Structure formats: C-alpha cells, structure tokens
Amino acid sequence: MSNDLGTLKKSDVAIVGVGITPFGEHWDKGLRELVIEAGFAAASEAGVRGRDIDLMLVGNMSGGMFAGQEHVAALVADFLGLNPTPAVRVEAACASGGVALRQGYLAIASGLNNLVLVGGVEKMTDVGGGWATSVLSGAMDFEWEAYFGATFPGIYSMIARRYMHEYGLTRDQLAKVAVKNHYHGSFNPFAHYRNRITVDDVINSSPVADPLRLLDCSPISDGAACVLLTSAENAKKYTDTPIIIKACEQASGTLTLFDRRDICTIDATIDAANKAYLNSHISPRDVDLLEVHDCFTIAEILALEDLGFCEKGQAGKMYDEGQTYVGATLPVNTDGGLKAAGHPVGATGVKQIVELVKQLRGEAEKGRQVSGAEIGLAQNVGGSGATAVVTILERGD
Amino acid sequence: MSNDLGTLKKSDVAIVGVGITPFGEHWDKGLRELVIEAGFAAASEAGVRGRDIDLMLVGNMSGGMFAGQEHVAALVADFLGLNPTPAVRVEAACASGGVALRQGYLAIASGLNNLVLVGGVEKMTDVGGGWATSVLSGAMDFEWEAYFGATFPGIYSMIARRYMHEYGLTRDQLAKVAVKNHYHGSFNPFAHYRNRITVDDVINSSPVADPLRLLDCSPISDGAACVLLTSAENAKKYTDTPIIIKACEQASGTLTLFDRRDICTIDATIDAANKAYLNSHISPRDVDLLEVHDCFTIAEILALEDLGFCEKGQAGKMYDEGQTYVGATLPVNTDGGLKAAGHPVGATGVKQIVELVKQLRGEAEKGRQVSGAEIGLAQNVGGSGATAVVTILERGD
Questions:
Q1: Does this chain's domain B5-128+221-237 share its CATH topology with B131-211+246-391?
Q2: Contact assignment for A71 to B1 by CB distance below 8 Å
Q3: Residue B195 CB: number of other CB atoms within 10 A?
Q4: Residue of chain A whose alpha carbon sits nearest to that of B133
Q5: B131-211+246-391: what fold?
Q6: A255, A239, A242, A180: which is closest to A215 by C-alpha?
Q7: Phi, psi (deg, nearest 5) at residue B245
Q8: I want to staple B42 with a disulfide (CB 3.0 to 4.6 A). Which of A141, B19, B54, B134 is the partner?
Q9: CA–CA dist B350, A230 (Å, integer)
Q10: Which of residues 226-265 of B touch A (CB under 8 A)?
Q11: Superfamily (CATH) of domain B5-128+221-237
Q12: Is the CB of A62 less than 8 angstroms away from the CB of B70?
C-alpha cells in the first residue's frame, strides 16, 4: 500500500492566494475569461507574477461537451501568460477541482515545485438544460446507468428514498438543508442564489425525482476559483495569513450505485476522511466548520455521517436543532454550498477551499463569518461517490 | 522558476511492466474493456496485484465527446479492482498519455508512491468521421480556430505549405515519412495498418488539405496502452529487465497557430527536450531510436529538428538518404508511428513508451528491432503544439 504521506512529505503546504468569480449565468464570459479572472485574483493577492509559477493545474469536468474545448489547461496557461510552464488538466467529474488541488498539494509537499496555481472552472449555461443533464451523466457509468435513462436527480432520489426508509429522515429535515444553505448564501456576494427560502418553499417546489424537489437540487452554474500554493516555509513571502493544508486525501469507490454495499453510505468519503484524520492528527471534534458536497440535499446528510460528525442515521436531527448554521455548533456550507452558491462542477472543489481560506482568515462577510475559526474541512464528491477528496485546512499563524 | 528535478528527486523511476491492445477498429470492445486489457497485461508482466498499486493515472482526451463517459479514471480503477486507490484522469489533447506518464513519473520520483499504473486510452470509432474531426478540434482553440472552420488537417497543411516554401522540402520527401512508417508498421502485430505503401501511393491518395493527402494523415483508432512504474531500487522485484526513465519533461506553448513566432517550429518540444537533455545528461547523439508524434507527415519532420537531431530545414534529406529506417543511423517510429500503428489520441503517449520499452528489452519483432538499442526518446504533442512531453528511457541492466 501507499507510503504514509505524513512521514514522507518534505514540506507543509500553504495557501497564499485565492481568487473566485461570482457563480451564476455569465452570458458575457466564456470558460477562459472566468478562470483567468480567478487566476489573476489569486496571483495578485500574493503579489506573484506568471513567470514565478512553475506548475498550473486545472480541474474541469467537461469543457468538451459544454463548450467544444478540451486541452483546457494549456489554454489557461497560455492566456495567463505562463508558457512554457507545464499545465495539466485533471478530471474526476464534480470532484475535478478537489483532485486538481490534491495534485498541486502533492507537487509542493514533495518538494518538486515551488509555486503552483490550482484552478477549477466550468462554463455550463451555454447549452440547454437537457444537454447539460446528459453531459453530467458522463460522471456516472454511461453504459450501465446513463444509457438506461438514469440522471443524477434520479440517482440521488433513490438514495434519499432508501435513506428515509432506513432511518426515518423526514421531508422537513431534508428541506432544512436547502433552507440553511440559502440563508448562508444570502450573505455571500459570489453566490448564484441569494434569496432566502422556507421549508414550505422547498416542499412545494416543482417535483424533479421523488422525493427530491427543485429546491433540493444544486443549480447549473458558470464559475471559476483558483488557489495559489507554496511551501509553509516560503508562505510569509507572499502573505501575512497563510492557511496550511494539513491533509488532502483522495479515495475511489464504485462508479455505479448498484454495486455499492450500501447506497446510503459513500465509502470513498469514509476512506479519504480516515486517511486525512490520520495524517493530520486532527479529528472531527477539532473542526470548526465544513464545506461539503451538497449537490442534492440528501448528499449533505450523508456527508456529515460519512465524515464522522454524527452517527449513521442521526444527521437529520442536527437540522431540526439548527446545529449547522453559522453561530451554532457545526457551521456547514457557510457560503451557501452547492445549493445556493452554485455548482459549476469543475470549480466546486476549489471554491470550497476558497471559502474555507476566507473563513480561516476571518475575511468572510458579516452574517456568515464563523467567529474564531481555526480548522476547516472540505469534502468534494465526483458522481454518486466514485471519487471523494477530503481536505483539512488550519490557520497558519 | 522550477526546482531542478534532477537534484530533488528521491529515486530513479523504472518501468517494470507494459501492456497494449491492438490499435484499430474494435467493434466488440468499449473504452473500459480496452484499458482493462492493457492494464491487466502490464500488471501481469510484473506479477503485481491490484492491491499493490497505490495510484492510477489515465490519459484520455475526450471520453465525453466520443462515448458520453467522463470520470474515466474512477471507472478504470473500479473495473481493475483498485478501489479505494486514488485514480486521476489527465487530459492534454493528444499529449494526454504523455502528461499522465509524467504525473506518474513524478509520483514515484518524489517518493510519494510505490507502484503506479499509468494508462492511456481512446475509443474513437463509435462515432462518425465528421464528429470525430469536430471532437479533435477541441484540442485547438475552439473559439479562435475551430469555430471558424479550422480542422487539424487544415492546421498542419498550413505548416507543411509554409515549411516547403521556407526550406524547399519536396512532396516526395514528405511522402517518404509515411512510406517508412508503413514499412515499420508491417512488422508490428499491434499496428492499425500493416500494408506497405509507396511514394506514388501517398502522392496519389485522396487530397485532404493541400499539400496533405490521405496517406499523410494518421488514422482514427481505438486502443489502449499501460505502463507500470516503481522506483529503480525496487524494480528487480518485478522484472529482470527494468527500463529507467532518465527524464520526462513537459512544456506549454500557444494554443493557436497564429500566435506562434514561427509556425514551422514547436517551441514546446524544444523547451521540453532541452530540460530532458539537461536533467538526464543525455544528448541527441546518445539516442539510439525515437518515437515521435507524426499525427501528419510534416509533424515528424518538425520533430526531428525541434528535438535537435538535425539543423532546421534539413530533416527532409534524412528521408532521401533512408536514415530513419531500422538498421540505419536513426530509426524513427519503429512501430509504425501514429501513421501506421494508429492514433487513439489519449493512448498514443503511453504507446510510444511501450514501444521504446520493448525495443530496449530487445523484444520487438524481427524486421523492426533496433539492434543493441540502449537509449530511446519519445516526443508526444498535444494539438498543434500547445503541450509537448519529451521522455528519455535507458536500459537499466
């Protein structure tokens, strides 16, 4: 099996710059404009010029199907003025951003690179909703799931139905995930949706795939996010508030839902989280806030359990008790999550990190800043759980 | 700028197993069957089981556009029985395989991983030729080239026309690239085309984009290739004939042809090659054979010059003199190259490595084995030159 990264890594890794575009419908910007905007913002924060960057990684799920554009990393490097620096596109469906971050983390941790720019981007709204749903189906097993008509709302509705049957989760509890995320999103100027909603709004919104309603589903969004990485010992050259990546771990699971030992559990999340806790010597009780992959409301419920923040079947109660709001015991998705902040699929894994960095620096907007936050955890999922990335960040000062 | 990898790497990297499918039209196999066949072959050669592998990398250009399937690395890991091992898809157009190899090389060189399986795969023949050409256009700048009707035969025809004007390359010299590659391919049981052709055949084949004819163009193919990597010190556990990766370097250039300082030169090849020579202390005169990216005949001409095997404008003469045949001074594309062996785009960069390994082990078929080969070099190009990867291999015993 793998070496223990904790004993092998040559240096701790720090985030010294972040950049993000508003998420939403960008009729005036294409894929390249979005990621360049975020990339310049991240580099500018750190006072870094293109020639200083020695590796570019770009998480992008489907530039080809959404925009006819593959070879995305070379495009981005070219337009950011980075040539001849190597540029690598990484794809793992909706976990593309998280996997790109991990490749960048390893490049610094190993001592191979000095300054790595990691971007995530998706431009989804140039195609119709039906085509977008087909493109997203490429994240499941095309031949054994999508070909027979499965869509992601359908896949997650089966998980939700089974979970409600097994553990007694109520329709109201599920709705409260979306209500909380829209509330947090209302304070986030970069969020796709900033409107607040009620449990009744969710329950009475259009049916999508029973029991999931429209307001249980994350939207189709455009957007990009970037983070700039260097070693912890060099971090102070670029920022007074470096944020340290204490762990960044990835695991794989079955692509098809029907191959799972239990469709109410994402084993890849458990595997990645356990390695992250082990390597960082941080446990769930140390964590001040979470960014989790709420592509559908049920996914946030699974995440809290699979990450070890409550017993199996108990997450619903946390929503009745309001525990996941900013100001309560465990703030979850303080930027609005995928549901309200938006879900440009290749960008999401990097956006989660941008949000945690802002929170740990104490720079989030009033209403959603977690007071005194020191440790944050992000969970990014591809497909219905074939890829999961768990990252733990800590304030470096 | 980047650290010098030569001084930082913790271990030399060895290739201890290779696997490849025949290239061609596989009506009975999909993307997953192809890469699994190659992956099992590579692991079996080394006597390795799935649980021993601690990272999977897959180079694939456009599973989405060709087969509706993104999230390709998780799919491959799942069907190879590797879960929960991390699996990362890497995309850089036709250099996807080379970039995947490089990520695997760095994972071993840094000491982060013990045993890495690197695959490349493309399944292209399930769609029509017109759609395939559109998909491949995703490797260029979609908005500034493809949108206006540019195709890759068109792009490379402009390069060929300009080169013939500048340096007096003749139509016969260009044809001799394809004639030589088909001759080599006739000895390769895995080649898409094994028929021998003549200069007249090339010149009289159907026009595609003047001056390029059908037999100047590599075909649309299905296929997969895999290599298994470990550290040089562990290599003897798995094989008696380890092949050492002396260098594996990547560089980026402009995506659009019109932004180049000179359209007859691929600067990314020069940049990657110079770093590879520097880090390996190997120079062109030490190299016994080459695998270069002959997506079109003119591309092989550029490669020999950009890699430093002759002066600018002089490569055509090497073909008049037969220097690039097996048995002559500098054998090039001993498996038939992209032209005759075939070009499943995501697989090509890994296939080049499989061929060099077979040659350096002395295992290539009669008629194409380079006698006493000790050092081989591979050049893999994405698009018209926005990404280039140059790899140098040496026999380890």
A1: yes
A2: no
A3: 11
A4: A68
A5: Peroxisomal Thiolase; Chain A, domain 1 (3.40.47)
A6: A180
A7: -85, 105
A8: B19
A9: 30
A10: 250-255, 259
A11: Thiolase/Chalcone synthase (3.40.47.10)
A12: yes
The CA distance from B94 to A71, in Å, is 9
A5-127+221-243: CATH topology: Peroxisomal Thiolase; Chain A, domain 1 (3.40.47)
List active site positions of A.
94, 343
The backbone torsions φ and ψ at residue A267, rounded to the nearest 5 degrees and listed phi first, read -60, -35
Helix locations, A31-122, DSSP H:
31-45, 63-67, 72-79, 96-109
CB-based contact A75 B141, cutoff 8 Å: yes
**Domain ranges, ordered by start, for chain B:** 5-128+221-237, 131-211+246-391
The verdict on a CB contact (< 8 Å) between B91 and A87 is: no
Asked if B69 reaches chain A (Cβ–Cβ under 8 Å), the answer is yes
DSSP letters, B316-364, are HHHHHTTTTSTTSSS-B-TT-HHHHH---HHHHHHHHHHHHHHHHHT-S
Instruction: Determine whether the interchain pair B67/A142 forms a contact, defined as Cβ–Cβ distance below 8 Å.
Output: yes
B71 is catalytic: no
Shortest Cα distance from A6 to chain B (angstroms)?
A: 10
Q: Is B74 helix (H, G, I), strand (E, B) or coil?
A: helix
Count CA atoms within 13 Å of residue A95 on its CB side: 38
The CA distance from A185 to A24, in Å, is 13
The superfamily CATH assigns to domain A132-218+246-391 is Thiolase/Chalcone synthase (3.40.47.10)
φ, ψ at B24 (rounded to 5°): 155, -150
d(CA B143, CA A125): 16
pLDDT tens string A31-86: 999 999 999 999 999 999 999 999 999 999 999 999 999 999 999 999 999 999 99
Residue B386, both tokens: 């926005």
Helix (H, G, I), strand (E, B) or coil at A151: coil
Q: Which residue of A has its CA nearest to B134?
A: A68
- Answer whether A36 touches B (CB < 8 Å): no
**CA-CA-CA-CA torsion sign (A126, A128, A132, A134):** negative
> In the block, which residue shows the tokens 């390695």?
A275
CB count in 10 Å sphere of residue B37:
19
For A57, which residue in chain B has the nearest alpha carbon?
A: B90
State the distance between the two ends of chain A, measured CA to CA, in whole angstroms. Answer: 34
Give ipTM to 2 decimals.
0.95
Residue B147 is which amino acid?
A: Y
- Tell me the pTM: 0.96
* Contact yes or no for A134 and B68 at CB 8 A: yes
- The neighbouring-strand residues paired with A379 are A390
Which one of A252, A254, A345, A389 would you mutate to disrupt binding with B, by most B Cβ within 10 Å of its Cβ? Answer: A252
Which parts of A83-151 fold into alpha helices (H)?
Answer: 96-109, 129-136
Confidence label for B163 from pLDDT (cuts 50, 70 and 90) = very high
* Terminal Cα distance for chain B, rounded: 34
Give per-residue pLDDT as tens, A249-287: 999 999 999 999 999 999 999 999 999 999 999 999 999
A4 touches chain B (CB under 8 A): no
Between positions 164 and 223 of B, the ones with CB within 8 A of A are: none
From B318's Cα to the closest Cα of chain A, the distance in A is 29
pLDDT at position A10: 67
